Records
---
Amino acid sequence: MIVDRALLGAAVLAACDANSDPKDIRAAIVDLLQNARKSGNEAIQTGFAQHPFDARPMTRAYTWLTDCLVTTTHFVATKILHPLANPTEGEKVSLLAVGGYGRGEMAPQSDVDLLFLTPYKITAWAESVIESMLYMLWDLRLKVGHSSRTIKDCIRLGGEDFTIRTALLEQRFLTGYAPLADELVKRLETDLFKGTERQFIEAKLSERDERHKKQGQRYVVEPNVKEGKGGLRDLQSLFWIAKYVYHVNDAHELVGLGLFEEEEFKLFERAENFLWATRAHLHLINKRPMEQLTFDMQVMVAERMQYQDKGGRRAVEHFMQDYFRHATAVGDLTRILLTKLEDSHTKAAPLLERIFRRRPRLKPAYEVIHNRLAVKDADEFLADKLNLLRLFEEALRTGLLIHPDAMRLVTANLDLIDDQMRASKEAQRIFLDTLLKHGNPERALRRMNELGALAAFIPEFETIVAMMQFNMYHSYTVDEHTIQVISTFAQIERDELIEELPLSSDILKTGINRKVMMVALLLHDIGKGRDIDHSILGAQMAKKIAPRLGLNKAECETVEWLVRNHLLMSDVAQKRDLSDLRTIRNFAKAVRNVNRLNLLTVLTVCDIRGVGPEVWNNWKATLLRNLYELTRAELENGMEKPTRRTRSTEARKLLKAALPDWSAKRLKVEISRHYDPYWQSLSTDAHVVFAGMLEDLSDDEIRIDLQPDNDRDATRACFAIEDHPGIFSRLTGALALVGANIVDARTFTSKDGYATAAFWIQDSEGSPYEARRLSRLSQMIHKTLRGEVVASEAIKSRDVIKKRERAFKVPTTITFDNDGSEIYTIIEVDTRDRPGLLFDLAKTMAASNIYIASAVIATYGEQVVDTFYVKDMFGLKFHSESKQRTLEKRLIEAINKGHKRAVS
């Protein structure tokens, strides 16, 4: 039992009899109600914990408990503290619940919205009653929102403000003078609601659009359960509109009115129940109103709702997949109801517009209803089940949206899309034409996906529908990411991204197999969500799916190769030193020909851009373009490809040309002091900068040059300093201390004992440093390098992982590669990112007498892959397995120690 009202009432009367002073009475009542509220909350929470998915009893229970508290304080205020033997007409006050409280749906931390309804201007007695009530409710720590109005006030304010009008729509009588509340209901209908249905609908839809702009789409990885797209507010808006227009008091009444099918109502109930349960768990975990499903909250809510790890995926991923499926259902229900409303509330288009509007020529099976593509005769339509696919192509061809009744027809008959239909040549043609012929495939794919038709036609797609990847790198669910990737490809084809993606745009102009490209884009992530490498599993699945889509043997083999290797180019570009010739040769061997290189390049670009709105940048573009150009030269030139020596010679010639004012003697000194890797790894611009920095450099001097590198979306930091062991560690420490994120680094030792190092850095926002900040940045780095600040101590205070990001689990793996470079061992450290990580790794290597020639840093949200090109103290590679294991152990210890510090 939540509260025994009889016992509570008796206790209240006894407390009032035992005290005479109003303050003492109020204190006694508050004490009683506080205990009742505490025990009631505990009972509700216990019941909810036993049925963590069943939210409806919980929301009603909190409402009932709140009713008990509010009506009790009203009784005490009106009968005990301010009794009236014969109230006048003006003192007959009605108390109503409004908003969510009025609707009878409350989360653990919901507001208590009250309306004190008075017949005329508020009297002194009424003011005293309201004041006493509010003090008691505030003492109970309830978040009370209140207003005191007459019926006339309600009509006037409701006419001016749709928020107030919506709250009044859900008013519910609690206690007091009931006839006044009844009069309000009648007057609202006759004087405010009637005849303003269209106005109300437009206002609610406008509110919804503004809310979605603010909160983001339903696929954002940290959705707002209440205000986000597909969230509770969307469901409530749906009900408000139905209540306003059709005067329903329960969503099930919409079935009887023909607005929803029975199955659609069940969908409404399931979505509502799930979203309310999620919101309630958020409130209970935080002990305050919390609507955002942040990463850390997702893990805790999934645990409270008893999700389990299974199938190679974490419990939180299963929970969020369910969340996004329900959010999608909310969108479908909204679309259905709004279309029905259009039938009765949409004004006819102006005459001239109807006369001159160009209507697309429809195929015989279709008609246009309210500018939407509708099916003329359902039975005839279903007689040829291929029409279930044709519908989407026809919508694309005509540019029309699909009518919800046609959508209903598809979802109700998905069982017709069977193996026989999938094997049909005509079905394959229709599907590929939908993707390739009309220039806007993402619109058809998104609708097919939301209605279940895509997963019906390609059953393997079902697993990734609404699948969330629990990390900070991916902004979308896997299915939405796939559609975003295809959208990018379509944009390139429409010449909309020529300036942003010149390389991909040029590749498409040369001509590629569009069918292969589109199918590879569609299937590239289809293997996700299992406990096996998704590229390998995806390739195995693509080998079976591609023939079903009508591709020939050679096309199928290419699709399979692309899916298997869809991460290869991105990995090489972002995790390897592209100045190392062996990197390019190995990649060229894997690609084999220019046709595959072209396809893989476009796939890689689309894939990265489809991860999220902030992921693609000039840095990635530059890396991919360099890798493409170097690999293409390798593939086309064969034995004529440049050697290390010819590349170094060419770099020296370019430096001479860039320094026309330098004497031959000065040039000879500069050119002779560097080894080949220096010439092969840096641009001529960097060589010019270092030439100036090294001239007349004294042994104890530190020279720094900071310049924006717009091509790479970073600031290039060049250092010239006397060489000594651990120089890379010192430089990373200095940069970490000033809050710089290192994205790439090169260090070189000159023949005359100086270190030249180039780092590419970004600020905390992932952007180049503004020009006005460079001078101060340089001063701070100088100060650190001179030893005025001990980096290892100072970094500790900054080396902190944010609370919302601590839920991520990233296993640490360390690999040693002696084949990827001719002269270096490549050490790849894949682990959890955090401030100061690179410094910890570099310091550990310095303590192990390891020379770091370069470091390439690739960040994927909370995961980072730091790749080091190194030699031992004798200038040799790390071939000894025992040395590798010893270093691996030290690096893991440094990572774990730093991680504990960051989360403590």
---
Amino acid sequence: MKSGKSTLAAWLHRLDAEELEQVLAARPDVVSPPEPRSVSELADRLQRPGSVALALPRLTLPALQAAEALAALGAPTSREALTNLLDATEDETARGLDAALRTLSTYALVWPDGEGTLRMAAPLRQAWDTPLGLDQPLATLLKDTASEELRRMLTTLGVRPPGTKTRRLATLVEHHSDPARVAAVVAQAPAETRRLLERRADPAYRPQAFTLFGGQSAPEPGARWALERGLLVRGRYGSGPVRMPAEVALALRGPGWHAPFDATPPVTPLVPVSPAEVDSEASAAATAFAAHAASVLSVCATTPPARLKSGGVGTRELARIGKAARCEEPVVRLTLETAYKAGLMARDGDRVAMTDAYDTWAESEPAERLPVLLHAWWTLGLTPSQARGDDNKALPALAGAPSCTGCLQARKGLLSAASRLPAGQGAKNAAELGPLAHWSRPLAEVLPQDATPFATVIREAELLGVLARGALSPIGAALPADSTEELADACHRLLPAATATARFGSDLTAVVTGTPAARLVTLLDSVADRETSGTASLWRFSPASVRRALDAGHSPDSLEADLAAVAAGPLPQALSYLITDTARGHGRIRIASAACVIHGEEPALLTEIAAHRKLSRLGLRHLAPTVLVSRTPLEKTLAALRTEGYAPVAETADGTVRVERLRSPRATAPVPPPRGAVSRPSTSSRTTATATPKQAELAELATRLAGAPLAHPAPDPGNSMPFATDTEEIIAGYATHIPHADVRQLAHAVDSGTAVTIEYVATTGSRTIRTVSGLDLDPPYLYAWCHLRDAERVFTLSRIHGVMPPA
């Protein structure tokens, strides 16, 4: 029998360029650099467990159900057996099964071989411990059973046993694969055994523990009769748990039992909605969020959020930002997470500070700001406004949690569900899109805080203007297309231009409708306190706020002129009076800063010191004839005066002369310089994933693979063919547990300096998945920056058991 990889390669080789392009588009991780050179190498990449794990969350519910049914049957299997198990004989369910199999073929998870049977990717079976509540097939469970034990089982069943172990196992499998024969055997069983078998065959069965006094597990009452006939199986030498083979369980469930198969999506209550209504509501929501986001980030720019010792921004700090920006906590969380993902914020010690990219973002128009945050939201590996964890404890924002594929698929499933709605129709209630989203992405993450499925994600989509009136807005339609131009066009069409003027009232307020321009916000924030923001923003002037502007260097005349320049009408007299009255008392008292004070009883001596050219670097200034202040700390000022021949003494805090005692010098232990082979990745990069291949690149690669030989000649360490690079040859000599496709990928990461994900087996035998970058090859070791540990680590090449592009 051919291996799964070889049959997959043969099937891929039969596809034309257009069909291959669909496979590459569905599984973009398999075309990460270096590109596969043949369909055989492509098949190797498609069969990686990590790659299969990435594909599963993108499947719809019927495709996932069909895959689980195939895993239960044990591929290869016939289309007829799958149809019978899913009861997909009627027209509607048959069409649903056809669509599910096409989807699985597009993802190269299931494919038909040349003999008309269905085969599946080997790692797909491992996605379920017990698919459909079924254990492994009989042949798998009995592969290590002694030949004599198989002979006894057949004899007990009344079947003449063949002479070899292989034939005996095949005969037993053939016998138990016939439901009628299994039913006839069970009919002869004692009542206790029949009840046990029926209970074990139930899909909802959960095994119970039966132990002897010594702690050894014992079979359940009535199991011995079934064990003697292979209806139940234990491990070799009678140890291990009692298990029921899949063939026996299916036979006992009977011909009337079928696996669940939801061929059609759930019905969502709909109401008519026009495109103009969708655009209007989406515009209002997007405009409000753009204004709120600007307010939140403005507050963070003024006072950077403090980080908890455990990491992230805590609820108290989130409440402070929300109060200052006049925003609810979900909006604050959504803004912070998307801004951080977009590179507008970065960790800076115990705080989260704005980056230079924020300044450019803040000065742009709302229609240019929003796409930055929208794209970050669409690619975030978490649900940003999630406030509670599984234990119902409050979660910090920007905590740096591991990427959650289920959270990412929740957004994709929601937009996929909304795109299925008929034109001119919207969900009667946006929350009712939850079941449809679950059908589109059944493995998507459902948060514990959600009263209805995907309630948090739906609320985020409404806040951003992605969903409006229960339908997909133009912004929401542009996100799945991954088109920067289309998203920018939608935002420019829906979001109005920034407002550059304000209306000033005699009650000392300024009102700006729509989104205020960046320069207007800067001016009003400097001279007034913001009270509300959103579709309309309000600032209030007070003596304290005007004094703040004067402290920043504004003069009364320039301040009034700047406000008049942005006023929609004349400035109210009350505002002019406030500025004048505040300026009248401004600066009547002055406070000077000083690092230390020099004083004495001789004014001439202090005048001489202040005029001394070599002491000018101290920053001395007269405050009184006998008092000088210095900008330089006391110790340095003291040393400088003594160097120039003066004899000053230092005072303590209470004015007494400080007594100085010399201390003996102490040596410091030498510190060896750190190894500098690997540098920490820049914090400006938020992800290590490679960019999604463009459609034209995929088409070109598909055409090249369709015309290439089935298998590219692989380099042979035995010197039959040279390796493509020296790095490949070195890695292949040490990393003996990975195929050549993985060798190529790891060598490319070393040579190009890109990140890569490896499966690593430690000396303890534990397997871990690590994303590493900054690779430095030093055989037999690999030095790299480990993203899991956030530190440099050393890996032994022979312990690397798999290589993948970073997720």
